[in-house]
Amino acid sequence: MSDNWMTKYGARRVRRDPPTLDEAIFAAMGITDNADEQAEIAASLMGLPLATVQTEVRKASRTAARARTQQVIAGEPGAQRTVVVERRTVRRFGNDRRPGM
Hints:
The chain has a domain at 19-69. It is 41% helix and 8% strand. Helix 1 packs across helix 2. The chain has helices at residues 21-31, 35-46, 50-67, and strands at residues 4-7, 10-13.
């Protein structure tokens, strides 16, 4: 498909934005955990040299490692947690009925 085509409403164009380096690295991190493979994937997405991308992957992996924190639920070890599920009732009004029913 070309960048411009005609429809019954007139000419339409497709906007093609290549991914930023951060977006490419984020996508590569979602695919694999290996930093070398992440750099190769991001470099192929961006069309950049591998050495340039490797430094950025290292920086991103450091910040991602800091961002990963574990949430600990306070309580006694081995104790079961209580989950409460409440059902929401539907309010029906007198004038909400359909005619003929």
